[in-house]
Amino acid sequence: MNLKTDIANGVFEFPFTQNDYDDLRNIVTNETGIMLPDSKKTMMYTRLVRRLREFKLNDFKSYVEYVEKEQKTGKDTELLYIINAMTTNVTGFFRENHHFEHLASNLDNLINKFAKINIWSSACSSGQEPWSIAMVVGEYLEKHPQHKSKINIMATDIDTNMITHGKKGIYNLPEDEVNNNQHLKKWFTRTSNETTGIIKQYTYEIDNSLRSLVTFKQMNLLKPWDLAQKEFHIVFCRNVIIYFSKDTQRSLFAEFSKKMPANSLLYIGHSESLVGVTDDYKILGSTTYVKLPA
Ligand SMILES: C[S@@+](CC[C@H](N)C(=O)[O-])C[C@H]1O[C@@H](n2cnc3c(N)ncnc32)[C@H](O)[C@@H]1O
């Protein structure tokens, strides 16, 4: 038996019917907004099959029953496991770099306008996005030390594993990636000898002086927001709404809009758009928006 070929051909070691897939993907959509197309069925199988082995279940139908039973008792351990397993966490430092350049050249404007700036990286994955923001802010504060303690960054994601990783601020990175990026070179310290692979990779740790700028917190964007900040002046909501329906996008941006005063900045992902989602923002450039007055 060739497990990989069998899975690719839709033959699973543990029975996994279309009904089972529909039940599980509905649970994911209801909880997170993430819509899973038919093409993700094999991915779901490979990511969840170890749970069947651990719980000694014979098929996915029994797994669905297990999850539903747990949900009825108000526990969410397995639900969290499924969410963590099914999220797509692709990210990178200075991904879509034009947003960070835009941020760098607008921080001064914003601080003069608002006196204090709250920045939100709202689907921060393993932290590369908020740490990239922190590097830009750190460089700004070096030039404008009088604004220290006026800028903070909130980093949230639904995936608990990602939040744990992000908080650590420790990454395995190719040596070239660090050396070729002035921000990474400045704010990362190499903390280990060479790791594995053909490409030279090392472990790097974020500079301690940036740590006080960023707070990490697990949060589902589609559940009531439990946030200390009353307002956000800069929101990064990038590469997450592509997984949501238009209706979900509309309700999400209605909430963002309530939290963002006029002139706040909003950055979305390269393949995302606010057309038909909200009229509360004006486009300034590619995937870069400013909040309009109410
Ligand atoms: C592809 S990553 C994008 C990371 C980063 N924003 C970037 O552009 O590089 C999408 C992230 O959205 C998170 N996510 C998905 N649904 C979410 C929800 N309902 N609430 C909060 N985060 C969510 C996932 O866990 C994942 O880490």
Mean pLDDT: 95
Q: For the report, how would you describe the main beta sheet? A: 7 strands, mixed
Strand content: 15-25%
**Total domain modules:** 2
Q: How many helix segments?
A: 12
Reading the helices and strands in chain order gives: HHHHHHEHEHEHHEEHEEHEEE
CATH class membership of the largest domain: Alpha Beta
CATH homologous group name of the largest domain: Vaccinia Virus protein VP39
What is the CA-based Rg, rounded? 21 Å
- CATH architecture tag of the largest domain: 3-Layer(aba) Sandwich
Between the first and last Cα atoms, what is the distance in angstroms?
63 Å
User: Which structural class do you get from the secondary structure elements?
Assistant: alpha/beta
Low-confidence stretches: none
Q: In percent, how helical is the residue content?
A: 40-55%
CATH level-3 fold name of the largest domain: Rossmann fold
Ligand species: S-adenosylmethionine
Strand order across the biggest sheet?
A: 6-2-1-7-8-10-9
